[in-house]
Structures are given as structure tokens and as C-alpha cells.
Fold each of these.
Amino acid sequence: MSSQAHFTDFKSDKQPTWCPGCGDFGTMNGMMKALANTGNSPDDTFICAGIGCSGKIGTYMHSYALHGVHGRALPVGTGVKLANPDLEVMVAGGDGDGYSIGAGHFIHAVRRNVDMTYVVMDNRIYGLTKGQFSPTSREDFETSTSPEGTKQSPVHPLALAMAAGGSFIAQSFSSDAMRHTEIIEEAIEHDGFSLVNTYSPCVTFNDVDTYDFFRDSLIDLEDEEEEHDPTDYDQAREKIMDFDNIYQGVLYQDDDSVGYEKRLGIDEPMNEIPDGAPEGAMDLVREFY
Amino acid sequence: MPEDLNWAVGGEAGDGIDSTGKIFAQALSRAGRHVFTSKDFASRIRGGYTAYKIRTSVDELNSVVDRLDILVALTQRTIDENLDELHEDSVVIYDGERSWDAEVPDEQIPLDVPLKSLAEDAGGAIMQNVVALGAACEVANFPIEHLDSALEKRFGDKGQKLVDNNQEAARKGRDYVRENYDHDFGYDLDTTDEDYVLLNGDEAIGMGALVAGCRFYAGYPITPATNVMEYLTGRIDEYGGTVVQAEDELSAINMALGAARAGARSMTATSGPGIDLMTETFGLIATTETPLVIADVMRSGPSTGMPTKQEQGDLNMTLYGGHGEIPRFVLAPTTIAECFHKTIEAFNLAEKYQTPVYVVSDLAMAVTEQTFSPEEFDMDAVEIDRGKVVDEDDIDQYMDEQGRFQPHYDAADGISPRAFPGTVEGAHMTTGLEHDELGRRTEDTDERVQQVDKRNRKVETAQNEEDWSPREFGNEDAENLVLSWGSNEGAIREAMQELDIDVRFISVPYMFPRPDLTEAVESAEKTVVVECNATGQFADVVERDTLTRVERINKYNGVRFNADELVDRITEAFAAESEVTA
Ligand SMILES: Cc1ncc(C[n+]2csc(CCOP(=O)(O)OP(=O)(O)O)c2C)c(N)n1
Ligand code: SF4
């Protein structure tokens, strides 16, 4: 396929089973557009997905893809990218997948800084298992497993990423199609690990963190009065640690970031191997003399 | 005098026992002698008894025995721990000048050598172990030049001065014994012109992986598998590959899976607790039909069990682990050299059949160094089979009518085509969910059955197409049949030389699929299965396969079988009235 792919080339012929109105539609459209706009094609793109309503995204898109087990999509993406740095690797999943069962991998993926884009569809609830609280749920959020609120403070993904040494930290809102797409494009173009926490409302189980809520509360960092410079670490930190407000845009980007695969010196796909033992293999034996 | 010499160095963990033992083992191997080593260590870094034992002979060795001829004791505990292995001609080398008066029992020959002060004379107390090696050379009547050569290998990179000092230290030890002990200890270590290599099971697995074209390794450190990762680190880069130390085993196996999906020959290695963590993803690997090699270097379980002790307790786990039903291959190398060969085979099987393949080895092999003639690792014989990989030229034949690539195409032999990401027109997804031929999720009853059958058919195909023969020893017509799997082979073979009864021994390196043992078991009067676990996991499998009761020899105290004890236990087992009378 040529590099002139249209975003619809990234669409599979499988109809999404998401609830009508689910934020994941918008998230997915933005991802497909961003991939096409940055010159990628389905044949050189690899999408790793988590488990959850959000994780189904790989099924509805068309590219090389793997839909794995709950919480482990980031390690899969890491393996794919290291084994073939020519591929555009994108990892997607929910807030439960990424910040709960997969939280350990999240922190390590951030600091390992493999060049891939991680889109977390943050709906502040567990959708697929039908409405239990998630790690990003508010403390007073009442759900089937938290009838009197969660009684624990929510995870702050951007702060976690910053603490782990993140090189690209961004947030978007799935229904702000243009900005969401732009932000993912920037994430794709960043050399290193890019986190895009995407608010992607669950219309079925979350009646608190709704479209209206996000629309009303999001502050866009592109707004002139914000004067935000994402390469300024201190400014970024201030916004990221400001838990009273939520922002849309690239909060932090390290200009000097170099992907882990480059630092390892991997410059070619690892899929070609000799027909028999490699030349000089007896030297491996001779080491044991 | 016995034909083999048994030597050990022991002390506190942190005393450099391991490297001292290894240097001596290398000296012996460079002198053209066979070496078989074993280690006794506790799960701690400093403090705690640790010993490195070497058995050496000009003949091939495959096992340890309960006898020590020369013991270098850096602590009293070393002597105490080994009392029952010392005999009346055993020599105990110790340093009486250090603040302990060694209590060497009367029967043994004490050799008080001022190891520390002689080492200081040579340039530093740190070389006291090398002084002891020099003393051991004199006791064993072993030319010190071979030790020189091993020291050169060990310290050569760090400068000639260090080599000189160590060689000098060794001479001081030798000369001290020469001058102060007017005693012929009766040993005479022959040397030969053979050039042996000396390596352990983990290194053999790592070397096998490199040779087989493994390019990606992800792992999390765990005894006794860590050595595989350490071996590959640094070496794999030269072939364009990489090693990733992951944050845990969950991550390790998922990274390895990702790399395999991207087209790299990929592997991970761990031990029991790590296998537990990997099991969920193991199912994903099988369902997505991803080729992956997983080495389980077993140690004593369950839970953290005895991390530095031997056991073969994970057979059931590797055969049956995982929810649902999972096609897989399980290989169990029977010797250190086989760790090399079976690892190569594992990569071919994994890619040919697009399945996960376990290579099950154990602590006894992982920490044992053994000599081999280099020809055992015949590189010309290595074959690489990548299976049904399609490229843009032949991908068309695996398209459906709408021109979509079918990664789970329902082929007659069960083996679908594989398109590496990047292959034009091959874009597809795979999932741990049940899927159709296109890889798309399905709950359709027919498609479910089709895919389950397809995956299982790969096993049938492999059963017919590959050679799953066991290794055979002894008299084929003997009425006594001994069966074992994995690392017990050497000890059993050696025991057979001493047995008064005639036995047929079948050593099984394939746990799944496995050879059909029915005929062998039926034609034997009695069958005894030897394995290092308490419940007889392999014996259970044999009984089920052959519908015949077998006797069991089990050991689960954390120590591998040795040849001497097997002579007794096998004799006893065949002499005993069978529990089940016909
Ligand atoms: C090991 C494991 N535990 C639990 C589950 C069940 N499970 C499926 S999705 C999910 C939560 C998904 O939440 P989130 O990641 O927020 O995704 P959403 O459905 O909200 O998009 C859980 C717990 C599972 N599939 N695997
Ligand atoms: S349950 Fe919520 S998250 Fe899941 S598809 Fe429906 S709206 Fe979307």
C-alpha cells in the first residue's frame, strides 16, 4: 500500500458493538485520521489493544494488530517496536486496563521511552464489565462496587507519567475531533513514548463524567491566555499537578527525547535470519574452551 | 586409587567460591580431562555455606558421586558439611593461620597451608583461593601449567600483572606443600590432547538460541534461569538482536510475544514462579498462533520453595497450565548438550507449527558445568525452518473472496500462513478472543469448532511429521525397564555400569507430544520411573498413556540424583515384590 492512505483504509469491515454515543467512536476516528495524516498505511502500522470496551478498538480498525490480555498491551507494543522499528506502533486501551491491572507496565513503558503512541480511553469507569469504578473514578463516585463512593483518591495519569520521566504527555477529548486528531498526530511524530489520555465518555454507566462535564471543564492549552509552552518543564509540571483543572493539549514534550530502540542501536527489523547457523558460530563454542 | 578425582572448595557465600571452582574446572578441562561440576549454595548473597564440587576423569562423566578426595575448606562448616563424603585418604586443605583451628577428623589428611599470608606475599590476600588451587595441584600431581592457562583466561582481560600475580600465588601454594609435606598423596592426574569446552545448561540454552537465530529475548531475573539472559546480553546484539530486562514476567512474555508477532525469533526464560505469571499470556500465544520459545529452568517449589535447590516439579504445569485447552509442545533436554540441541529444535517447532514451545530444564543442569568435545555442537548440522511465512508474492493464495488475508486459514494440516507486519496486503489482526479465519472475533458455534480443531490438528501433524523418539540405553531385551525424563539421564547411565541386574533404560526428552511407550512398558516385567519430584508426575503420564502400573523412584529433598544412590534404589525397586500383582 502506498503512503497515500486515506483514513478509511484504517477502518475494518467489522461494525463496532459500542453503545450508540460511546466516546470510543470519536477516539478511534481521530486515531485513524492521525495515522493517515502522518503518512502511515495499514500495512506498516501495528495496533496493540487492551481489554475492555476500549480495547475492542483494534477489531474495528484495519492494520496489523494484536488484541491481547487485560493490561498487557504496552509490553506487546514494546516487543513489536523493538523487533521492527520500521512499524508505526500504537497502543490503545481503557483507564482500567492501563492504570489498574496494567499500571506497573505503564510506569515502565513511560520510562523506557520506546517510540510508540499510547492512547488511553479514559471514561472513568469499567465499561465492559458493566459499571464498576475505575482507577480514575472520583472519590465520591457511586457504582455497583462502590455504593457509598470509592473511598480512595483517583489516579492522576499525567502526574504518574511525569513522575516516571515521561517525554510526551498529552490529554484530549474524543468529541473535540479536530484537536483530538491533532494531538494524536503530534504524539505519533514524537520520538519516544507518547501518552495521550483521551476523555472518552461512557454514556451507559457514567452519568457524572459526561460529554457536558468535559466540554464545560476542559481548558485548551492552545488558548492564547494559557501561554503554555510544553517544552518548559516547570510550566508543564504546574499544569499537570493542578488536580483541580483538566487540560486539553500537549502538556509536556521533551525535545531531546530519543526512542529506546534507537538508544539500543536497533535500526533494522529482526525478521531476517540465516538459513542455518550464523557464520562463525563455532566461535560461540570456542568461548567455552 | 579411583580413576576419577573429586575435589571441592567450600566457604561462605561471598568468598569467591564459584570463581575459584570454575578456574580449577577450566584448568582440568584445558588439560583434556572431563569435568562434571555441582554447586551447593544457599539463597543468600553473603554468609551461608556454599561449595563448588568438581568430579574429573579422563573418561566421560555424567553424574556426581558422594565422595570427596580433596577438599579446600575456607571454613569449619565446609568440613562439617562434607564429613560423610570424606574417606580415609581424603586431603583437607585449610588455613590454620587464619583465626580458626580446623577440626579435621583423624581419618583424613590435614594440610595446613597459610593461604592468606602466602597470597599476601604474592600481591594480595584476595588470591588466597588461588594459593589453595596451587596446593591442590601439588596434592593431585596435576601440572600447574594448566592452572596457569585457566588463570590467563580468567584474568587476561584485566592485565598481565594480575595474571602474573595469580600464577605466582598458585606457585606459592604448590611450593608450600612440596616443601612442608613429604607425602605422596597417590593421585596422578593424566592429561590428554583433547580440547574440551566447559559449559552449563543455561549457557547451552542461550547458545542454542543464538545459533537458531533468536533475535529478541525478554526476561525477568530468577534463579536458576537468569544465566540465559546474562549469556545473551551483549552477544545477541552482534546479530542485530536485543535483550530486554522487563519489569516482571507478565511483561517479559508479552514483549516476547510482540516481537514474535513482528517476525523475530523470540524467547523468554524463567523458573516456576515466573511460569505461573506467564500462564495467562501462554493461552494468548497459543490462540493467536504465535511462535514463541519459553524456557522453564525448574527449581524446587511450590511458591518460592527452595530457590537454589533442584526439582522436576513443573511437568504438570507445562503440560496442562492455562485455562481452556491449549496446544503446545514441551521439550525436556536430558543433558547439557541437549539443552543446546533442543533449544534449536524448539525454535523450528515454534515457527513451523506456530505454537508456544516449552523447553523444560532444571537447576541441576543450569548450574552444572560439564565438558564436551566441541563437535557436540555441530554448527553445520543446524537447520532453520521458519514454516509458512508468506510474502507479497504468495500472499494471494491465502486471501478470501473479498481479498482479505486469512491468518487463521483452516488448512488441512492445521497450519495457517504467517505474514510479518509490513507485508503488503497482509494487514490483519489477531486476538485472544475466539476468532474466524480472518482473525475477527466470533462466537459462531461452527467457527469455534473449526478453529479449535484447526489448532489441535497442528499437534497431529507434528506427531506424524516430527521425530519424537526417546533416547535408549542398556539392553533392549531386558525385563527391567527404567524410564526417566530430563536431567536424570546421566546419573542413571552411570548407575547402570554398576548395576548387577540387566536393565533397559529409556530417557525421554519429549513430554508433549511424547513417544509411545506402550510397547516398551508392556514387554517389560516391571517398569520403574525415576524423577526428581514427590508425586511422580511423569509416572502418572506413563500410566495413563500405557494403561499399566509403574513403580516410582522419587527424590524431592532438593538434591539431584547421584549415580551411587541410584544403583541401590534401582536394585531395590526391581527386587521388591510388585505392589500390583498381575
Ligand atoms: C485478568 C482479567 N481480569 C478481569 C477481566 C475482566 N475485565 C474485562 S474489561 C475489564 C475492565 C475494563 O475497564 P477499562 O479498561 O476502563 O475499559 P472500558 O471497558 O471502560 O473501556 C475487566 C475488569 C479480564 N478480562 N481479565
Ligand atoms: S458500556 Fe460505556 S464504554 Fe462500553 S461501549 Fe457502552 S458507552 Fe462505551
Amino acid sequence: MARLTPTAPRSPQWRRWVLGLAGLYFLVPLAASVVFTVDVPGQGLTLDAYTKIIGTEGFTSSLLLSLGLAAVTIAVVLLLMVPALVALRLGAPRLRPVVEAVCSLPLVVPPIAFVAGLGTVLKWGPEHLARTPLFQTFVALQNPDFPVVLVLAYVVMALPFTYRALDAGLRAVDVRTLVEAARSCGAGPVRALVTAVLPNLRGALMNAAFLVLALVLGEYTVAQLLGFRPFAVWIVNISGSQAQMSVAVSVLSLLVTWVLLLALAGAGGRAPGARRTRTAKG
Amino acid sequence: MTSTLTTPAASRTGSGKRRGRAPGAGPDARPRRRRAPAWLAAVPLLAFTAVAFGVPAIAMLGGAFTVDDPAGGPASYGTGNLATSLQGAYLTALIGSVKLSATAAVLAALLGLPLAQAVVTGSRALREAVLTASGVLANFGGVPLAFAFVATLGNAGVLTRHLGLADKGWSLYSFWGLVVVYLYFLVPLMVLTITPALDGLRTQWREAARSNGATTVQYWRHVALPVLLPSLLGGLVLLFGSAFAAYATAAAMVGSAVPLVTLQISDALSGNVLVGQENVALALSLDMVVVAGLVMAVYLPLQRRSSRWLA
């Protein structure tokens, strides 16, 4: 940064304008949303939109469903990715491009196209497999209390950016030395992974987990088209009848997500390379 | 998947044999046994992707090329759905999506570049703050974003009411309304994408240009922009892809007021407009995959090129 200081005082004027306009554009919608929820035409200032949220039908169940889906998705993603990526670093470098390509594939297929294919597969159940044991699997996948099919979809959608988050974390750690040290102390491969590698990856694991959490809490496309009702779908459903409340819940969910992501940036984001992982969403 | 798995394993055995010709063949056996589980650990991941991603992808391909017989006879394979997906309202929607994504991406790139430059030349605290905020905002999208803008600039939105925007012909539920909304996550994404490249511009280049008598404009025109070009183009296609795939924001905000391919797919899937258009929806999805694939085919080489310049 020091090398930039000579040029820094040269142009404070335009920089102030750019930052000011950007700040305005990014803050006004948030401020206006808050005003919208408390300043209801005809009623004056009221906090009803916020106080009534908890009691509204569907809020608790849809939020719990989303949180449950997020927890299971995080667990599945980490269980699939961590051993694979660690092992690739240790012993199968030639497989790395393959895994990287596989994990990047979901970027090429937009969520709506993915869910179109997923919906087609789910229809095979009643159409072709009604008399086979597979049918029960299809029914279980779509259990409305806990739709496993959403977990499958979310894991796929999370692959590209969890890959980058974990890969950046692994790049900063000398996995080979850690594992060899643990193994020469007598640890088995699993124990070496759990006691030596994972603690060193804590930042990257948290990073990946929070990104998945944000993804699942905000996910609308897949859930809506497959006919389930987690949090994001619920907000849209109530927006027709209770506009104020839907905006209030949006504001709250934003704040929660942002506090989580900011906490993440504060905790692990200082490490070099961690910033790159946050661009992964796009 | 299995065939790709055996390749590295097989080639490793091959190299092991080559090394085995040396006198010390004994120790070679141990690392090989220790390595064998290495690729095994990737099997669950690859198997999972093959099922959860591969099967729907194949179903999409199959459905896109399956044409139902209107007379109720057996379905046949053909390109009828693809032809339908490139006609009439579907084509309008596809073009509408491309236009919207391209407009939003270009605007976001033009607006993001000065912002990123302000960040790069600013103080450390400013830099941390803006980049952290960008990381958060670039992850922001979907339903909450749509509702924030509905509350701000929608029909009954706060700014619309207080500034009387409706009388001036403003509507959020239009092409330009969507562009304004999309910029909210595209500009931060651009800032994140382009900042490393701006960081990579050496101060010496600017000093060298200046001591040769170049103006600031000439420096940007002949030195900085050519170096930045791959990163800029890479960022541009990344933003385009991001906007092109967006569905939730538009669905929660405009319904089908603006023709977009994602909205057409969801309408066709849920039978909102016409019954029995599922396969056209799959063909449209395939169209989208082709566009997104082209985007990645442009993006990845550009990214590689810019990292070579700015390493």
C-alpha cells in the first residue's frame, strides 16, 4: 500500500464524489425499506410489521425448515469436499483438474435450468417407477417436512464456491507436512485429518459454512419451482397480503445474513487469499 | 466418472513401473499403497455430483430433444422443442435476457471501475470497509433485494411517493427498473473482480509514463487499460453470466412484466401459460446452458491471461 501513497493526495475530489454516490446508491434502498415498514400510509408510525412477525402463520416453520436444510447441506458439503480436497493435495494431483472442473460445472448451469432437469427426474417416480422400490426413495426425497431433494440441489449449487473457499484455505497450509508429522506420531489417516489438518483449516471451513448458510437461507428458485416452502418462498407468499411485513422480514434477514458475513470477514477475512473466496458467489 | 478416475491411477502405476527399474524398487511400494486411498477420498464427491448433478443434466438434455406427439402417440426424438424455444415469445424472452444482462453488466463495469480505483488509491481503512461491504453486497440478491427496491422505488415505494416519481413516468417493473436493481449486486461484484488487477498496476509504469511526458489520459489509454483489458472483459462476462442466471429477484419483483428467459422457463414448467410445455422449458434451459457455457469459455482464458500479466 505504501507505494500508492504518492498518488493518493492527487485526486481526493473525484474520489469523494465516487464514494459519496456509491454510498448513496447502496444505503438509500436499505433506509427506505426501514421507512417503508414503520411509516404506513394512513396509520402513521407503527412497529406492527416487526412485532407481528413471530406470530404470523408459517414464519417459524419456514425459518426452521430453512435452518435445518442449511445445517444438513453444510454437513454434506464439508463431508464430501474436505476429505477429497485434502487427499488430492496429498496424493492425487492429477485428479485435481477433474475435481475442479466438476465443482465448477454448476456455474455453467443456471439454477433455473438445473431445477428444470431436477423436476423432470422427480416426475419419473410416479410415471415409470411406481411399482419399484425406487418409488419409495422418490417419495422420501420429496417429504414436505424435510425435502431431501433440496439438500441435494443446494449441495450441487454450493460446490463452486465451497471449492474455492476450501482450496484457498488448503493453499495456505502445508497439508503434506502436517499429515506426515501426524502419521509418524502414529495417527491413522482419519485421525491425522481430524486432529492435524482440520484445526488449521478452521477459517476456510467457517468461510464455506457461512457461504452455504447464506445461500440456503436466501434460496428461492429451486424451492419455489419444486413446490416447497422454506423461508424465501414464505416471504414472497406473504408479500401479496402483508407488504409491510414481507419487507420487514427481508430487512431482518438481510441484517442477520450481513452480520454473519461481516463476522466472518472480521474473523477469517484478514488472511491473504480469503478475500478471493468471497467473490466466489458470482 | 469411473473412466476418468482410473486414468490417474493407471498412469501412476505406469510411472511406478518406470521407477521400479531402479535398484531401490522396495520403498516404492509403500508410497503407492499410501497413495491408493488418496483418489478414493474423491470418489464420494464425484459419485454424488454424478447423481445429483449429472442425472438432472441428462434428463434436461433428453427432455429437450423429446418431442411429444400432439395426437397422443409415442414421443420421438427431434429438435422441435429447440426450434420452438427460438421462436416467438420464447425468442423475445431470450433476447430480453441477453439485452438486460448485457446492459446491466456494461453499466456495472463502468461504475465499478472508478469505485475500485477510489478504493485502491484510498486509505487502508477505506479499502477494508469497501471490500468487506462489496463481499457482502455481491452475495446479496434474490428476494430480499427485490423487496428492498419495491419498498424504495416500487409503486408505493418511499422515494416514489416522496419524490412523485410515478408522475415522471418512472416504473420499477420495467427493463430499466431491473437494471437499477441488478446494479446493486453487480457493481460490488465488479469491484471485487477488478481490485486485484488495479492493485497489480505498478506505480513505476505510471511514473515512467509521466517522466516520458504522458498525461493521465494518455497513461490510462496506452498503459493501464491495455493491461487491465483481460480482467475488465473477464469481469464483464462474469457479471453478464450472473445477471443472465438471476431469477428470484425478477420473479419476486416484476412477475412477467419484462420478458426474461428465466421467467419463461418457470411459467412453462408450472404450466401457467400453456399446459404441456415442460419440454420447451427444458429446451430453453439448454439454450441458457449454451449461453452460460459461452460466457465461461470466454471468462476462463481471460482470467488466466490476466493472472499472467498481474502475477
